Structures are given as structure tokens and as C-alpha cells.
Amino acid sequence: MQRLQKVIAQAGIASRRKAEQLIMEGKVQVNGKTITRLGTQVSANDQVTVNGVPVDKEKPVYYLFYKPTGVITSVKDDRNRTTVIDFFKHVPERIFPVGRLDYDTSGALLMTNDGELANRLMHPSFAFDKTYIATVHPIPTHDQLRRLAAGIHLDDGLTAQARVQLLASDKEKGTASVQLVIHEGRNRQIRRMFSALHLHVRKLKRERYGFLGLSGLHPGESRALKPHEIKTLMHEIRHS
């Protein structure tokens, strides 16, 4: 048995808070009966609808995907470009990406059908570290690295503090490899941070998503999360 609002949230229809609001507004039915009481328990055999639309209660699944460059982080694309879902045609559940990676950015991406988990991970208040490796030109100065760590003023506000490390530099090519660890998820944030300092990103990869790394995976490959990894994810979002 599970609480009704949790079933709705896990189906990806709404966050748990929004699901509670839908219940109180009389928009949720269980076996044809309108439910307005929070905390109502339902089983896998109960038929749940929201605004008359059935809620599918799939078993939650979780995958770590090594997104290649040139792939859209979306369930579908109106220009028929390759999307991350094209790599999961073998998965019967209706999964979706948690957050996004730009078209020209590769790296770690979480895929799931657990809407509640996705909503929590993507919420601005949830500080989940994301580790990026950027190849930039020219080689950043010590002051530029310091400014990246302290926060950059972008058109949508000051970025949060980051952990920044110069990994390597090539003086002949004038390029450097820089690691950044951030917990925000603004649109094209890393590229915009470097651009604000007149540094051009030639290559960008998300090396880690929280504690989940890409070890053993090649671009385009994925793996199911292990039970202890799922447990850790759940623990982190519940104590955030």
C-alpha cells in the first residue's frame, strides 16, 4: 500500500505537494470515487485517475546514462533529432531524463520513471553536486579561476560558489582542462560562466552526477542503478 499523493508523484504527473493540492481540489478518483482526504492508501489493484486520466503505476526504474554529444535531452524532438530516449528502446517503462545536458555536452544523466524523485532532484533548493570537466581556450588565469569559484554575475543572477581546479594546461595550444563542481542547473550555466570571463569552452563533459560516476561506460551506454545507489539517492532527497 502507498499513499495516494506518492503514487501520483511517482507517475510523474505532479510533485507530491501539487498532488496533495489536486486531491484536496477533488480532482483525483480511486475506483471511480472522488478522494479529498490526504493520506489515503491505495494498492496496485486500485484504479487511480487524475482529472479523468488513468494513472499508470509502473515499477520505478533508474538508469545512469552516458549521454553523447549531438543528442537532445528530451523525450521527443519536433525536428526528428536523436534524443536520449532513442537509446532506451529496450526499456518497457516510460522513462525520462532528470534535468538536462546541452546538445553539445556529454556525460552523466539520470533516467527514470520516478516523477517524485526527479522533482526533488531538480528543485532549486536541492544541492546535488554535479562535476564537469571543461576544455577551454585560452588558459585561465589564477584570478579567473578564483572568480569562477566565488560566483559569476550572469543575466539571471549570481551563480553559487563552486569548487574549481585546473587539471592540466597546454601552452602550445593555449588550452586548459578545468574541473568545476556546482549544484545549480541553469541553462548552459558552465558555458556562460566561462564566456563571462572571455574563455571559450571547446569541450564539456559532466563527469559525475552526485556520487554517480561514468566508470565502465562509453558514450551511448547506460546501466541500471544498483540497489544501494537507489537507497543512497532516496536517503539524500529525504534529508535535504
UniProtKB/TrEMBL annotation:
InterPro entries: PsdUridine_s_RsuA/RluB/E/F_cat, PsdUridine_synth_cat_dom_sf, PsdUridine_synth_RsuA/RluA, PsdUridine_synth_RsuA/RluB/E/F, PsdUridine_synth_RsuA/RluB_CS, RsuA_PseudoU_synthase, S4_RNA-bd, S4_RNA-bd_sf. PANTHER family: PSEUDOURIDINE SYNTHASE FAMILY PROTEIN-RELATED, RNA-BINDING S4 DOMAIN-CONTAINING PROTEIN. This is Pseudouridine synthase. Its EC number is 5.4.99.-. Belongs to the pseudouridine synthase RsuA family. The lineage of its organism: Bacteria, Bacillati, Bacillota, Bacilli, Bacillales. Keywords: Isomerase, RNA-binding. Signal peptide: none annotated. Residues 2-59 form the RNA-binding S4 domain. The keyword Ribosomal protein does not apply.
